[in-house]
């Protein structure tokens, strides 16, 4: 599997329910051994996470299922990442 960095950004407030759904989704990815690391930016206008996936298309498909992205609240970009 390859590592992918998912960068999320948003300009609007997010409901507690949507944040909870986002965190639950990340926990599901972690339980599937797909999520390595995740966290918000200090300014709380986005965050990032590191996914394990076979292809960029697979990583994008996983990110698109994130409730923050699926709801249209957050925009995102996915990069294949050669982390050391």
UniProtKB/TrEMBL annotation:
Domain YCII-related: 12-81
Gene3D superfamilies: Dimeric alpha+beta barrel
Pfam (any one): YCII
InterPro entries in the record: Dimeric_a/b-barrel (IPR011008), YCII (IPR005545)
Family membership noted in the UniProt record: Belongs to the YciI family.
PANTHER family noted in UniProt: GSR2449 PROTEIN, YCII-RELATED DOMAIN-CONTAINING PROTEIN
Protein name: YciI family protein
